[in-house]
Design goal:
This is Psma8p. By secondary structure, the protein is an alpha+beta fold. It is 42% helix and 20% strand. It folds into two domains: 98 residues, Aminohydrolase, N-terminal nucleophile (Ntn) domain (Glutamine Phosphoribosylpyrophosphate, subunit 1, domain 1, 4-Layer Sandwich), CATH 3.60.20.10; 89 residues, Glutamine Phosphoribosylpyrophosphate, subunit 1, domain 1 (4-Layer Sandwich). It has a five-stranded antiparallel beta sheet with strand order 1-2-3-4-5, with helices on one face. The N and C termini lie far apart (51 Å). The model has no long low-confidence stretch (mean pLDDT 91).
Length: 205
């Protein structure tokens, strides 16, 4: 099972932890998304879906005979007004909104990278956003693109009522690899330029 999945047409989740727990949680949230849409005739907000997921997790921490869900999640998506949102839910059932975040093994390293390098300018375009995501993963993911999963979600203005307002795609490994190679090339060039400027190395420009 992939670590990234759609919850509704406009919301996706990335998870870290027990895959079996994630599957149960994802299925329950998907049912709620459909139920909400049938009742309200509009898709649920990203915050509503994140809160619903967090409530399920919290209920399992308070129930006798049931263990907590062993999974952390990043819930991402667009509301109908075109605003993007990112929420994190943890096994205890709390949830928080972020501009960018990471979960799972080595998440601290990725989070520190994002804190230093995330800017509104860096994520103005799809290419820039993917580039930032790949850079944040390169120092903690072995074998480069082979072990990376990247999904891209973009907003599109509906042409008629009820039309899906989101484009969603999973990047192929060769697409991710092209970003990895370009970033490696840029880093090599930056290192060479640094050595030329550094008199301690003895390299003349």
């Amino acid at each position: 099972m992939r670590k990234i999945a759609l919850l509704d047409d406009h919301v996706a989740v990335a998870f870290s932890g027990l895959t079996a727990d994630a599957r149960i949680l994802i299925n329950r949230v998907r049912v709620e998304c459909k139920s909400y849409k049938l009742t309200v005739e509009d898709p649920a907000s990203v915050e509503y879906i994140s809160r619903y997921m967090a409530q399920i997790k919290q209920n399992y921490t308070q129930s006798n005979g049931r263990r907590p869900f062993g999974v952390s999640c990043l819930v991402v998506g667009f509301n109908k007004d075109a605003t993007p949102h990112v929420y994190q839910t943890d096994p205890a059932g709390t949830y928080y909104e972020w501009k960018a975040n990471a979960i799972g093994k080595n998440s601290k390293t990725v989070r520190e990278f994002l804190e230093k390098n995330y800017t509104e300018e860096a994520v103005e375009t799809e290419e820039g956003t993917i580039n930032l995501a790949v850079k944040s993963l390169m120092d903690v993911v072995q074998s480069g693109a082979k072990h990376m999963e990247i999904a891209v979600m973009t907003y599109k203005k509906p042409s008629k009522p009820g039309e899906t307002f989101i484009n969603w795609k999973m990047l192929e490994h060769d697409e991710i690899d092209s970003y990895v190679k370009q970033i490696e090339k840029e880093r090599e060039e930056a290192e060479k330029a640094k050595q030329k400027k550094d008199p301690i190395t003895g390299t003349s420009s």
